[in-house]
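Quick one, tokens below:
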């Protein structure tokens, strides 16, 4: 069968009923089709291009399988050439709605651009394919049709970016500049954008396009990135271009507030007296300085927190002002901060909890009890703390997800849902998510609820978790906190003597049970294990089972990190290692899992023990602070999910963080 005939079959299937067959999941040949799909995909990718035609009949035999368009894509994708343009065009025409279409379109357009098929490129181009292809389209459009006002407006948008554009944009920007469209104002504006984003190389490059009297802006941005102390004095800038120079001063003083806060504290009043910075910029710098001094436990931190805590202050200043006086256990000051804070801040769980703690400490017991009782009905970290303080059971506020059966059946039969399901089965998680996202963009709320139920039943827990938050069904606790990989978790938790609910809470916070998750730091898998951590555990830590040790010694460790069972055991082994370093306190272990055990030791009190709730709210790293709160709350929920009646927070609320001893 020729590729053209295969295409005809594909089109018939696409517009017919095959992809909408509700009984495909019950098809007795489904397992055979799955095996055949995996085999053909591997064959298509490996045989010489000259032999691809021998596989066309085999692909045709898969026409009733939901992933037939993906096999067809594999065939066309390996034959991207001008001679094969009819098949490529037909595929692009008839696969709208299939996400893999965009991949082929990008490849096709890049081929056309590389081989100078400009007319065909312009015919095939579609918006939304990225900056590189947009610049190709603009370049070819100008060469074919000239540059009108709309063309120049598009290029101006490309110019006003604080980063370097792709190389494909160079001829477009060059033409735009040489035709007099680059004004002094636009040149100065982009220098500021690049400076704010820390692109000093671009800032230096842009200097040549600025007028003579503005080139110093580029130099000042480079200087302030090298040494933020260069803007400590108002005299450091001439203020001949005040709008741009204010940006440099604000950026530099904010950065200096973290590096050299005492010097900023000395010089900020001079800036205030100079009148060269507007009040909102001074407020921003004051807030940064106040938080920096607080984290350094500087004697003047209270003074600066009071200065920063204005009606226009950001929420972060208010929470650090509260945390500071809580740390000092200055309970009357806590009440003052709560009273002065904006209503939206006062109503958060954090402020309500500490308001109640302060009221209790100053003897206003009835008021404290009323606040704690109300807070104890809520399902979150502070709600669980409040329930422990009131000696009542935690409130989980459960609500089942309401799903209409007919809507559910319709979603189950949807071609995109079927393709997503099969891709998920084949562990092709990225294309599966693309299909799922494309489907969800077209659904109403009730249909999205049905999709959540479907994902949960498939064991696609990360998409069920994300989906239920998007529908607003936050009380569907069983879906938000699934017992995913529970058998493996419990088995490994017992092996490493770790609480199963704790390990589930860590995995839920780390990855939402996305088995192929990769963080910006390259942490991988369910438990977000770094390759370097895994290597250390294998070679030095002496905590892993001998079975796993032998397995990981046999080859590159990275290849095992996306295997759920291996990743879980590595994560549990790391928890055990942290226990050896810090003891059995789950709060300290959770903090160390996120920030490292050296940091946790650095944060331990040096003179006397600190109540656990106070210590948690004063963890310097926001990410770690929120992480610990989430893990503790999640562990409480998983204790309930596992059928345990324990109140984790009864112990937590009574804990003291011990003094560090070497």
């Amino acid at each position: 069968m020729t590729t053209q005939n295969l295409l005809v079959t594909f089109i018939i299937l696409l517009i017919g009923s095959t992809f909408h067959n509700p009984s495909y999941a019950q098809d007795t040949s489904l397992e055979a089709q799955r095996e055949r799909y995996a085999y053909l995909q591997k064959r298509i990718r490996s045989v010489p291009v000259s032999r691809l035609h021998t596989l066309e009949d085999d692909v045709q035999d898969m026409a009733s399988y939901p992933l037939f368009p993906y096999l067809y894509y594999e065939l066309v994708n390996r034959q991207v050439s001008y001679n094969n343009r009819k098949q490529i065009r037909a595929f692009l025409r008839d696969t709208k709605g299939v996400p893999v279409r965009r991949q082929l379109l990008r490849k096709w357009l890049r081929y056309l651009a590389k081989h100078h098929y400009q007319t065909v490129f312009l015919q095939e181009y579609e918006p939304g394919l990225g900056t590189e292809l947009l610049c190709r389209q603009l370049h070819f459009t100008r060469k074919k049709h000239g540059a009108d006002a709309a063309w120049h407006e598009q290029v101006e948008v490309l110019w006003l970016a604080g980063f370097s554009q792709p190389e494909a944009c160079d001829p477009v920007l060059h033409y735009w500049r040489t035709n007099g469209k680059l004004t002094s104002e636009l040149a100065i504006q982009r220098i500021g954008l690049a400076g704010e984003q820390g692109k000093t190389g671009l800032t230096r490059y842009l200097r040549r396009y600025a007028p003579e009297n503005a080139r110093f802006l580029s130099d000042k941005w480079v200087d302030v990135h090298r040494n933020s102390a260069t803007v400590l004095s108002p005299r450091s800038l001439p203020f001949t271009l005040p709008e741009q120079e204010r940006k440099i001063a604000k950026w530099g003083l904010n950065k200096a507030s973290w590096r050299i806060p005492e010097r900023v504290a000395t010089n900020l009043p001079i800036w205030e007296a100079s009148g060269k910075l507007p009040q909102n910029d001074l407020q921003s710098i004051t807030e940064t300085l106040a938080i920096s001094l607080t984290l350094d436990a500087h004697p003047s931190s209270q003074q600066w927190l009071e200065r920063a805590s204005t009606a226009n202050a950001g929420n972060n200043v208010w929470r650090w002002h509260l945390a500071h006086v809580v740390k000092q256990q200055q309970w009357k000051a806590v009440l003052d901060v709560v009273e002065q804070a904006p209503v939206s801040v006062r109503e958060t769980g954090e402020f309500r909890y500490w308001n109640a703690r302060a009221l209790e400490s100053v003897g206003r017991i009835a008021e404290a009890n009323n606040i704690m009782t109300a807070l104890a009905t809520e399902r979150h970290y502070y709600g669980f703390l409040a329930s422990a303080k009131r000696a009542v059971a935690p409130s989980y506020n459960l609500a089942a997800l309401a799903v209409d059966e007919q809507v559910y059946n319709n979603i189950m039969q949807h071609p995109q849902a079927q393709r997503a399901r099969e891709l998920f089965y084949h562990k092709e998680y990225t294309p599966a998510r693309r299909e799922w996202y494309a489907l969800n963009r077209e659904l109403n709320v009730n249909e999205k609820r049905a999709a959540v139920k479907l994902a949960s039943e498939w064991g696609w827990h990360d998409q069920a978790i994300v989906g239920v938050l998007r529908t607003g069904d936050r009380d569907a606790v069983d879906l938000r906190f699934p017992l995913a990989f529970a058998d493996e978790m419990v088995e490994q938790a017992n092996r490493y003597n770790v609480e199963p609910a704790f390990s589930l809470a860590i995995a839920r916070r780390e990855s939402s049970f996305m088995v192929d998750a990769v963080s910006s730091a390259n942490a991988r898998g369910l438990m977000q294990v770094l390759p370097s951590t895994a290597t250390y555990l294998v070679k030095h830590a002496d905590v892993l089972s001998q079975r796993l040790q032998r397995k990981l010694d046999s080859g590159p460790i990275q290849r095992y990190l996306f295997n759920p069972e291996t990743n879980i055991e590595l994560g549990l082994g790391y928890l055990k290692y942290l226990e050896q370093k810090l003891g059995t306190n789950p709060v300290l272990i959770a903090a160390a899992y996120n920030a490292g055990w050296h940091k946790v030791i650095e944060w331990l009190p040096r003179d006397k023990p600190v109540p656990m709730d106070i210590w948690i709210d004063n963890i310097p790293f926001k990410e770690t602070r929120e992480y610990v709160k989430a893990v503790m709350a999640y562990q409480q929920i998983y204790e309930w999910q596992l059928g345990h009646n324990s109140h984790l927070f009864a112990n937590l609320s009574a804990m003291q963080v011990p003094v560090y001893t070497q």
